[in-house]
Amino acid sequence: MSGTKQSVTVIGLGPMGQAMAGAFLDRGYDVTVWNRTASRADALVARGAVLAPNVEEALVSNELVILSLTDYDAMYATLEPAAAALAGRILVNLSSDTPEKARAAACWAAERGAVQLTGGVTVPPSGIGQAESATFYSGPREVFDQHRPALEVITGRTDHRGEDPGLAALMYQIGMVMFWTSMLSYWQAITLADANGLTAADILPHAVETANSLPGFFSFYAERIDAGRHIGDVDRLAMGMASVEHVLHTNADAGVDTTLPAAVVELFRRGMDAGHAADSFSTLVELMKKAEA
Predict the structure, then answer these.
(1) Going by fewer Cβ within 10 Å, which terminus of the chain is more open, N or C?
(2) What is the pLDDT of residues 172-211, one digit of tens each?
(3) Candidates 3.40.50.1980, 1.10.1040.10, 3.90.550.10, 3.40.50.720; correct CATH number of 171-288?
């Protein structure tokens, strides 16, 4: 942004992009938007946003360009035809993808005269514009610092993780590993409850209590794992093996899908086969560091 003028371009108007553009409008920014399906901009235009007729116009309208696209392939498909307009742009790429693709995209942008800041938003659209919400960023620190006020419009907390453009994507995917697996475990619990005549509402308090106990386990094991200490003084893999088999059998007896609990049992079994029965089940971390041959 030049001078004191507050202006931004938002490319991609799915639910997240619309929420971001709306947050900038709420904060008094001049907002230019573009989306392949132009009608998605109607509500934003009614609030004062300017709909660019094409990607080139969207890019040249502002130095700061927020990308909210499905993935980096969508980014290339959108921006490559307008590559001549990329020079001098700051691309805040909030699209989800892998760390390696984020690094490759940063090189691609640099070759065309643009700078990429990779971002990983940790909240759904409803969290955009909220002071307590957070986004990971990585890329040139100077660029991040220069545009931090605008980034804080998207989420109040901004966490710059380093110069490597892949780091923000990595932190985002770490969160997604935990989110999707945790939610699937909740679906499994609901499925098991349903097979036994209980509703999701019936088990909700127990599910929440169980989930709320996890931070204590995270903290306890983190120090031990970093130190490579997997001693079986508090728990043993053999004990865990018996437990996860009970979980699997309970689901099988109920006649529900056992894909998830069977996968857990398989991991524990591999640890047992590797000779770690008397160690903590945290030793599975070492097993998981290498893909199974």
Answers:
(1) C
(2) 999 999 999 999 999 999 999 999 999 999 999 999 999 9
(3) 1.10.1040.10
The single-letter DSSP state of residue 80 is G
| pTM score | 0.90
Q: By the 8 A CB rule, do 237 and 268 touch?
A: yes
Q: Helix, strand, coil proportions of the chain in percent (round to 5)?
A: 55, 10, 30
Residue 292 confidence (pLDDT): 76
**Residue ranges per structural domain of the chain:** 7-163, 171-288
Q: Please choose, from the candidates 230, 212, 213, the residue with its C-alpha nearest in 3D space to the C-alpha of residue 221.
A: 230
Please, are residues 24 and 153 in contact by the beta-carbon 8 Å criterion?
yes
Task: Return the amino acid letter for 44.
Answer: L
Question: What six digits make up the tokens of 290?
Answer: 């290498």
Roughly how many angstroms between the first and final C-alpha of the chain, as a whole number?
51
Q: Within the chain, what is the greatest distance between any pair of CA atoms?
A: 68
Instruction: Specify the DSSP class assigned to residue 251.
Output: H
Tens-place pLDDT, residues 20-79: 999 999 999 999 999 999 999 999 999 999 999 999 999 999 999 999 999 999 999 999
